Amino acid sequence: MSEALRIGVIGCGDIAASRHIPAIMACPDVQLAALCDADLMRAQQLAGQYQVPLVTEDYRELLQSESLDAVIICTPPWVTPHLTMESLQAGKHVLCEKPMAVDLVTAKKVQATELATGCKVQVGFTYRHGPLLETLRQWIREGRLGSPLVYRLGIFDEVWDPEGNKEHYDRIYRTMQHGSPSIHDGAHVADFLHFLTDSAVASVDAYGIRTRPEFPATNYDLSMIHYENGDIARVEIGWFLPHFPNGEFEVVGPKGIAIFDRFAQYVQLKTDKLTETVKLEEDWAASCFRIQLDKFIASIRMDTPCVPGTAEGIASLALTKQIEQGIRNNHN
């Protein structure tokens, strides 16, 4: 068996503590060797829980460790690309949270740094991994829904509760200062569409509203994305509401409908002749993080490109920036 890859984690917030680190600890092919967070106490608590030998508040100290093979970067997206580039220059492979940047110029600098250093970047579009989305893509590519297709997607997250959870409110407010929910949660939606469609985007119409005047960006966005092959996607993304509607993930065509229920953990194809269902028995989110880490390790060991990598990260960001521009044009 190959020696375990030694991984460090930069940014020890909720997504690292609840998802990335448990995935690392459950994988026999990697070792959690270092933790870094600007809040040193938070990093120390995790280090004590998992017996991590190196803990620091200075990411440069982590990157100077010659024994580390790779890092997982779980920082805000306006910070992530700069840490990604420094990590690559230090000879570390990188799995970074999405979006890989908040502007295309910086994202392309990350890609150029990846090419120049020879190290790898995998972008954390975690929820594209696993049999459910792959089954949905297979149904689409086999023509079982016909064409043209209508994609109906909705993501609602980040409950507005400034009094009950001030830390969460302040964190999401700061995030919105760097773009609307379409830049952040929209990164997943854009990657889903990139993964499922075989067509280029022809045009984007987008609208957004602030449900409270003090918000630094729109907190509800509605987008209509037109594809060159005649397909269309309707995308809703909402943050900072006290209650949410159910999110949708449906693909409708002249031959039937495919439903991706992320909460009940199944995809289902319905036509006039049959109903076909593929259900996931293990926890969907945990399985996605596990598969994502396995693919990252395989790319490093086999020296193959990471997928999704910087090309997919840039494609996702390009679409969300089109949405952002559409919102800006229609909001003013």
Report on this structure:
It is built from 11 helices and 14 strands. With 332 residues, the protein is α/β, with parallel strands linked by helices. It has 2 domains: 5-126 and 287-308, 3-Layer(aba) Sandwich (Rossmann fold), CATH 3.40.50.720; 128-280 and 317-331, Dihydrodipicolinate Reductase, domain 2 (2-Layer Sandwich), CATH 3.30.360. The strands form 2 sheets. It has an 8-stranded mixed sheet. It is globular, with a radius of gyration of 20 Å. The termini are far apart.
Briefly say what this structure is.
The chain is 39% helix and 25% strand. The protein is of the alpha/beta class and 332 residues long. It has an eight-stranded mixed sheet with strand order 8-9-10-7-11-12-13-14.
Q: From the 3D coordinates, which CATH architecture of the largest domain would you assign? A: 2-Layer Sandwich
**What is the rounded distance between the termini?**
60 Å
| Number of helical regions | 11
Low-confidence stretches: none
Number of DSSP-assigned strands: 14
Proportion of helical residues = 25-40%
Structural class: alpha/beta
CATH fold-level topology of the largest domain: Dihydrodipicolinate Reductase, domain 2
Please tell me the total number of domains. Answer: 2
The main sheet orders its strands as 8-9-10-7-11-12-13-14
**What would CATH call the class of the largest domain?**
Alpha Beta
Can you summarize the main beta sheet? 8 strands, mixed
Mean pLDDT: 96
Radius of gyration: 20 Å
